Structures are given as structure tokens and as C-alpha cells.
Amino acid sequence: MADKKTSSEAARSASKTLRDGRTSKDSKAAAGSALSQKEGSKKKS
């Protein structure tokens, strides 16, 4: 599988989708997936 990362622009759009109360569960799942693939998005413990 290719090692691709989500762009900053796509991450901003995904974040807006997650914060919007009108979006569907499927849309939020896709947005969460995109954000999880954003480079540097994982928090350190």
C-alpha cells in the first residue's frame, strides 16, 4: 500500500466536517479516517 498522507487542505475540510452537527455518520467516519492519516496528527503519550 502506498505511503500517502492527507494534505493540510483536506485535513481542514475533514475537521470542519467532524464539527458540523448536520453531517452523516458515514461522512464523519471518512473525515476521521482522513485526519488519522494526516502526518503529525498522532499525539504523543
Essential attributes:
2 helices, 45 residues, 53% helix, elongated, mainly alpha
Description:
The mean pLDDT is 86. α1 packs antiparallel against α2 (25-36). This protein has 45 residues and is mostly helical. 53% of the residues lie in helices and 0% in strands. The radius of gyration is 11 Å and the shape is elongated. Residues 1-45 are annotated as: Disordered. Residues 17-28 have a biased composition (Basic and acidic residues).
Taking pLDDT < 50 over at least 5 consecutive residues as the criterion, the unreliable ranges are none
- Determine the strand fraction and express it as a percent band: under 5%
Q: What is the average of the pLDDT values? A: 86
Reported for the largest beta sheet, the result is:
none
Integer-rounded radius of gyration:
11 Å
- Give the H and E element order: HH
Tell me roughly what share of residues is in helical segments.
40-55%
* Category from helices, strands and their pairing: mainly alpha
Intertermini distance: 27 Å
Oligomer: single chain
The overall strand count is 0
Shape: elongated
Number of helices: 2
What is the secondary structure topology, with strand pairs?
Layout: H1 8-19, H2 25-36
Biased composition (Basic and acidic residues): 17-28
Region (Disordered): 1-45
